[in-house]
């Protein structure tokens, strides 16, 4: 009945948000304490709420991708991932950095703010070089591992970054146009 009457008798003593069920309040309180008791059996990532764990497992580990882009047919596991991807086609960039005014397709890319603060929380375990973005550390690690995941489909040359492969492909186009 509480669900239908929208009765909310359980109130968080920290932020004063109200809930209809005591268990929902208990889950909510974990957002304040930082406790994350729900652990993914596959990757070990921790979550404060069971529903977040369930969503993580579905989106990340099941491989199910029920949402398709109408432009390119690429498939996604969530509506939000599809929405962010669709912005590549529309050119929409609704999130703006307040410092440099650069626009982004997703709010999460505002981690870019680390560029302005010189915060570099990601460290190379081999040479101790520091990075502000985890993806840049991942790219850097290819220097140490020798990984070259990008291959030319014409001559099989391999590259550590997609940008290197793109530049290389132009050499094949120059030969064709000559």
UniProtKB/TrEMBL annotation:
User: Does the keyword Signal belong to this entry?
Assistant: no
C2H2-type domain ranges (all copies): 10-37, 38-66, 67-94, 95-121, 122-149, 150-177
Q: Which GO terms describe its cellular component?
A: nucleus
Intracellular or extracellular location(s)? Nucleus
List, in alphabetical order, the Gene Ontology terms for molecular function in this entry: DNA binding; DNA-binding transcription factor activity, RNA polymerase II-specific; zinc ion binding
Taxonomically, the superkingdom here is Eukaryota
Listed SUPFAM superfamilies = beta-beta-alpha zinc fingers
Which UniProt keywords are present, listed alphabetically? Answer: DNA-binding, Metal-binding, Nucleus, Repeat, Transcription, Transcription regulation, Zinc, Zinc-finger
Matching entries from InterPro entries are given as: Znf_C2H2_sf (IPR036236), Znf_C2H2_type (IPR013087)
Primary place of residence? nucleus
Identify the Gene3D superfamilies for this entry.
Classic Zinc Finger
Question: What protein am I looking at?
Answer: C2H2-type domain-containing protein
UniProt source species? Parnassius mnemosyne
């Amino acid at each position: 009945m509480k669900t239908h009457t929208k009765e909310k008798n359980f109130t968080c003593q920290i932020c004063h948000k109200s809930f209809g069920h005591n268990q929902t309040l208990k889950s909510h309180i974990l957002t304040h304490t930082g406790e994350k008791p729900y652990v993914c059996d596959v990757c070990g990532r921790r979550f404060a709420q069971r529903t977040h764990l369930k969503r993580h497992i579905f989106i990340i580990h099941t491989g199910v991708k029920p949402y398709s882009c109408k432009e390119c047919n690429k498939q996604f596991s969530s509506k939000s991932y599809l929405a962010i991807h669709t912005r590549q086609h529309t050119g929409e960039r609704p999130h703006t950095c307040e410092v440099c005014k650069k626009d982004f397709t997703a709010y999460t890319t505002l981690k870019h703010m680390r560029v302005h603060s010189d915060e570099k929380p990601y460290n190379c375990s081999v040479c101790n070089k520091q990075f502000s973005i985890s993806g840049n550390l991942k790219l850097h690690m290819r220097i140490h591992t020798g990984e070259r995941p990008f291959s030319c489909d014409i001559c099989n040359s391999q590259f550590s970054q997609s940008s290197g492969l793109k530049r290389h492909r132009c050499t094949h186009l120059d030969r064709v146009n000559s």
